[in-house]
From TrEMBL, chains A, B:
Keywords assigned by UniProt, alphabetized: Isomerase
Coiled coil spans: none
Family from the record: Belongs to the aspartate/glutamate racemases family.
A Pfam cross-reference name: Asp_Glu_race
InterPro entries named in the record: Asp/Glu/hydantoin_racemase, Asp/Glu_race, Asp/Glu_racemase_AS_1, Asp_race
Name this protein carries in UniProt: Amino acid racemase
GO molecular function, one term: amino-acid racemase activity
Enzyme's top EC category: isomerase
Annotated SUPFAM superfamilies: Aspartate/glutamate racemase
EC number: 5.1.1.-
Amino acid sequence: MQAPPRTLTVGILGGMGPAAGVDFLRHFVQACAEQVRALHLPPCDQSFPEHWLAQVPVPDRTAALQQPGAGGHQPLEPLLQALGRLAALGARSVAIACNTAHAWHGELQARFPGVELLHMAREVAQALAARGVREVGLLATEGTYRSGLYAQAMAQAGLRCHVPQRGERELLMRGIYDGVKAGDLALAQQCFAAVARDLVERHGLATLVLGCTEIPLALTQVPGVDGLALVDPAAVLAQALAQRAYGAAPA
Amino acid sequence: MQAPPRTLTVGILGGMGPAAGVDFLRHFVQACAEQVRALHLPPCDQSFPEHWLAQVPVPDRTAALQQPGAGGHQPLEPLLQALGRLAALGARSVAIACNTAHAWHGELQARFPGVELLHMAREVAQALAARGVREVGLLATEGTYRSGLYAQAMAQAGLRCHVPQRGERELLMRGIYDGVKAGDLALAQQCFAAVARDLVERHGLATLVLGCTEIPLALTQVPGVDGLALVDPAAVLAQALAQRAYGAAPA
C-alpha cells in the first residue's frame, strides 16, 4: 500500500456561529478530497491531514466593533485562547470561520507568530483578481463594513468594492440575526435576496461577495437575477487552508 | 439581554472518515439548536456549548480487527492521544464519530475515567427500545460485525439484530471503501441499497440501522422498499452528546 502523504496539522477557529463552522469544515474536507485526487494520493481516511476545529462562544463581533473603548476588545480574549490552544495542538496554519472576527486578525497573528493565520478577505481578493474580476458588491455585517476589511483587501488587489446603503445594511443584519442565527432561513433568504438585487442593479455588477459566513447558509441564488456569480469566502478560505495542509507555500 | 446558558464543553473524535466527521458535527449543531429552542434560550451563537472536533488519521479499524496479535491495536494509539487532548481541552463528554472504532471503547474509557465516553451502539439500542422497536437489521463494516458491538448492545436492550450474509457483507465493504471513502457515492448507494433490500425482505424488517458512519452519506432511502425506518446512529449519538452539553445526566 502507498505511504500516506506528508501533511501538516491545521486548525479552524469557529463557533461564529456554529452552523457556519460546520459549513466551513464541509468546504475544507471537500477541498482536501480535491487535493487527494490532484496529487494522486490513495483515496482513504489516512490521506487527509490532521485538523482540529474549535467551536467556542465568542461575544458578538459587530456589537463589539460598535462600542467605543475597551468593550470593543471583548471578542479578542476567547479568540486568543482558542488560537493558542490550536497552536499547542500543533496547527501550523489556522483559518477563522467568521468574516467579522478578522477585525482582530492583526492582534491575533502578532501574538502567535509561529502560526500562519490566514486572512479571509485577502484570500478572496487575490482569488478574484486572479480570475480577472475588477468590480464586486459586498454583502456583510455592519462590523465588517465598519472595519474596512474587504475595502482594504480589495483595494490592495486592484478591485473596486461596492457596499449597500444604510437601510439595506440593516436588512442584512436582520437576515443574519433574526434569520440564520435564530433558525429562520426563509426570513434570511428574503432579506439577503432583496439587498443583493438592489445592489447588483444599482451598479450593474456580475460578482457578489457573501462576506459573512451566515449569508451563504440562506442565499444560494438571487431570484430574478441571471448570470450573477456568488462568491463564498468560506469556500475560498477553506481551499487555501487545504493547500497549506498539503504543504503548499503561501501565495 | 438574557444570560447565556451554562453548558459543558464536549468533544468529538473524528476523521474516520473526515466526511463522516462533518456529518456528525452537522447533527450535533442541529441537536444543540433543538436544545436551545426546547430550553427557551436566546437563539444566538453564545447559546451553544464550546465543542472541539479532532479529525485525526487513524489506521483502518476493520483491517486491524482482522489482524491477530499486536497489529490489531494500531488504531488505539492515535485514538488515545486524541481523546487525551480533548480531555485536556476540558471536554467532559466525548463522542466517537465512527462505529467500528467503538471496538476500543472499553480501553479508551478505562484510560480516561474523568471523561464520559459515549457509546454509539448502546445509545442506539436504548433509543430504539424506548420507541418500542423489537427487531432490526444492521448494515455495518466487517470489523463492527466481528466485534459484536451492536449484537451485545441490542441484546442488552432486548432487541433482536439481523445481519447480512458473507457475500452481502463484502458488498457493503465495497460500498464503504471503493464508494464513500473514494468519493464514488453512486457506487456506494448501489451496494448499500442491494444489501438493505435483501436483508429487509429476508426477515420482514421495518427498521434498519446504518451502523457505519459512511453508509448514511450515500443511503437516504432504499428504492422499492416502502415504510422502512433508516436509523442513523450518528444522529442518535449527536443528540445524546448535545443533551450532555446542556447538562442532562446520562440516561
